[in-house]
Amino acid sequence: MPLNQDYVGRVFGPTQPYEVSRVKIADFANAIGEPSAACRDKTAAQQAGYPDVIAPPTFAIVISMTASAGLNSDPGLGLDYAMVVHGEESFSYTRPLHAGDVVVATSTIESIRVLGAMSMLVTSTDISTVDGEHVCTAKSTLVERGQ
Amino acid sequence: MALRYADVEPGTEIPPKSYQVTRLDLVKYAGASGDFNVIHWNERAARSVGLPDVIAHGMYTMAQAARYVTEWAGGDPGAITEFGVRFSAMVPVPDDGAGATIEVSGTVAEKLGDGKVAVDLTARAAGAKVLTRARAVVRLP
Question: What is the pTM of this model?
Answer without folding.
Answer: 0.95
